[in-house]
Amino acid sequence: MNRNTEFSFDEENRSFSGYGIVFDSDSLPLVIQDRDLGEVKVYEQITRESMEGANVDDMISARDHNFSQILGRTSAGTLELSVDDKGVMYRIPSLPDTTYANDLQVSTSRGDIRGSSFTFSIDWEKGYDIQERSDGGLVAKPRQITKVYEMGPVTNPAYPDTTAENRSAGLVKAVEAFFQRKAEDDAVEENINEDQMSDLEKRLRLEEAAL
Length: 211
Fold this sequence. Notes:
Distance between the termini: 70 Å
Structural class: alpha+beta
Strand content: 25-35%
Strand order of the largest sheet: 7-8-2-1-9-12
Shape: elongated
Radius of gyration: 24 Å
Number of domains: 1
Number of strands: 12
Order of helices and strands: EEEEHEEEEHEEEEH
Number of helices: 3
Oligomer: single chain
């Protein structure tokens, strides 16, 4: 999964910092075709609780998710992370003296690169909390993020990318299961209502017969 967020760049110190994850903010929508509802937009949201226990021990920062253009790494001490009520902030204290890092400095100073993104995986056994929105869409919140692989500046984050497509297949299944449970609950409620109506009709007939 990747998500777009803003970052800041200190030209004097050649340092990057930004929120790679913003809690409770919508991802770009994943559009799912439902047989009864048609197109349903699903927005993924990361919560602070879902990040608890996530593995970030060897997380890297790279430009445009290109692992051959590493800007920093937590295990090397060249990438720093902090968590607050807003989200997860990453900081690269000093960019490496490489061609791609120098190109990145030029691109950010021109305003061509303005966002940050991250990739991660979740615990599929715990799955998602799914809620309906007032606009007819759904909000899907992963209960547990298992690992954050990468977080850094991007030119134009796409959703879903290759990593997201692998995960979105599971998200589609989670949404389908949500719709199935909802249909089953509606069917049970309908049966209860029918039973109640049947009991009411029986009582009315008895009352009419007693008159």
